[in-house]
Sequence to fold (780 residues):
Amino acid sequence: MSNLVTFRQETRDWLEENCPAEMRKPMSADGACWGGRNFKFSHPDQKLWLDRMGEKGWTAPTWPSEYGGGGLNYDENKILAEELFKIGARPALASFGLWMLGPALLEYASHEQKMEHIPKIIKGEIRWCQGYSEPGAGSDLASLKTKAVEDGDNFIVNGQKVWTSYADECDMIFTLVRTGPQEPKHNGISFLLIDMDQPGVETKPIKLISGKSPFCETFFTDAVVPKANLVHDLNKGWDVAKNLLQHERKMLASMGLGGSAAGSKGKGKSGSGLANLTKKYVESSEGKISDEGLRQKIAKSDMDAHAFGLTLKRASEEAKNSNHGPSAATSIFKFFGSEHNKRRYEIMLEAMGTQGLGWEGGEFGPEELAVTREWLRTKANSIEGGTSEVQLNVISKRVLDLPQ
Amino acid sequence: MTLTLSEEQSFLKDTAKKFAQEKTPTTHFRQIRDTENPECFDRNVWKEMAAQGWSGILIPEKYGGSNFGLAGIGVVLEELGRTLTPSPLFATSVVCATLINKAGNESQKKEYLTKIASGDITMAFALEEGPRHQPSSIKLEAQKNKDTFVLNGKKNFVIDGGFANYIIVAAKTSDKEDGSSLFILDKNSKGLNIIPTVMVDHKNSANIEFKNVVASAENILGSENSAKETIDETLDIARAALSAEMLGGALEAFDITLNYLKEREQFGEKIGSFQALQHRAALMFTELELCKSCVIEALTAFDEGSNDLQRIASLAKSKMGETFFNVSNEGVQMHGGVGVTDEYDIGLYMKRARVAEQTFGNTEYHRNRYAELTGY
Fold:
């Protein structure tokens, strides 16, 4: 125990000295630091904070120090998170490398591959995107057709990926490619890391209903990929894919808590994010929202968020000793988190009335416009990373063991 | 606050599970129901529960209990809830033991808590006066006449009221807002008319009429005109404990249904292979996982002294109410025709779900309370 007390004090001291003032201010919606070769830092302190945290390995606190990670155990990691929260520190790095690729590499990559890629993820030097879905391979991901053919020390890759998040700003892409066209579909897939800075790789942003373009199409035309970039065995990529998907679902699930986490933290009459927003648009009397129907919906949503937060906490406590990565049960979180988030935005729009329906212009506040765009963005929550229906399939088959 | 059971709590849960499976499976409940046992429970089984120490889990050691906490009695209630085990554990050892422990004077605690812990007496709490939970408006009056009180009025839905040796009644003793008091009365007190009610879940309860029932100052639990806080705090403990019982019932209803999906064949296939049913099963499983977290949070919140007890109790009772209702109804539907027969157990859970949901505030009641406590 005293070790943890010491650790907390040391952590507090280090953060006090190293977390720049600018990085303790609340972050705007697009204020995240994504890193990578071409990232434009919004402030010198953003770079400073990333460099310091990356150097210490605290962008990936629990990863092994051998590869540049923080090497912290469960309790130490919890303390670090608490201390960061206490000073209002922004995340030093947001990255698909951290959330998705890294954990899969730690499990499946060779020592050389880990030495090559993990430190660059931790320090935010390389920004990664995901190349899984294809125009003809959505929920039925394993039917993917992008093919990689062996050619001496390289693979030659041809095909098209879709829903590649931020591909136009990324340095590398982790892909699923077909290397065994004669094999049954799950057994002919390999996991390949591809450098996007080459003539054979092109990206094109996709405009969404929100008007934004967080996703791209990515085209491979005779792209050259060294064999050293094959992770795990040839034609065994589906194992890596499934493992990585669990991490992706865990990441997407935690987004479901969004701003409504306040519902579970706020003690006493401090309100909730939803209720406080509602009161700006809907009459209330002595603090009580007068529209009873809306008030019940908000309470249900806040209670769902509260229950969901407790369940994530319980799962992490249960995982603490079992030393397993995320399991099929992660589908519960992905499913509930994304559906909950969609419902929450619907309630916000209902509360805001026509002020929540503006597309652009000065008659709407920037926060109002952001809610409207975000409402549209949430519609993808229950599609990306496996649709809600796919999650329910996973729960019923792999958790409940219902017959095929 | 931790959301996982300690080793001792897990051990107790396993013991209770074994007990319920061996001694009180649902056939035990059916037997009591079908022989029209007016007490609706088996005194020998209750003696065995007391011998296990369960009747005294919430009672301090100096009065013969184990003081093992709400999470302790909660895991027992959960396992008993799985088999719909009828017992005085909830009304006597949770609700009334808590009222006495909170408000009683030394001699009352010594007198009653010791006998509750040993399993020698049972008690019931007479609170409700209408068909819906409304703890803040007590109309049953206790008129003070020098050193005695005269009680007149009627109480509804007194759980275990049909057999309890003692009734703790909440009565209005002053016109002030908080002017209520608690009295402990022997069930044989003059003027007390106990009318057993046969409920849809076949658990014991009664309506009780009070006609000029005379109580002395000694019958007051704690002090005069100060019952509100005791009642409010006790209700939250009762809600958390009841949520644990409801969790057990909901989990069992789900397990029964899941097994049925894996056995029943139609169109030449197990019906559990149909996606329309698979997705609904997965939805229920997800809701139950959320409920497990709410219940353990509520139980440990009391044991560890959280400052957010009321909201957490309402969270657990509300989530459990909606989920037990949903899971048992879906269970009946997925069983098809046999789901509405008395022979299959699934319908028993649906009936219990409705009664438990109404007890001490239904889903909407607690949603409303949660909103109020959060400040909207």
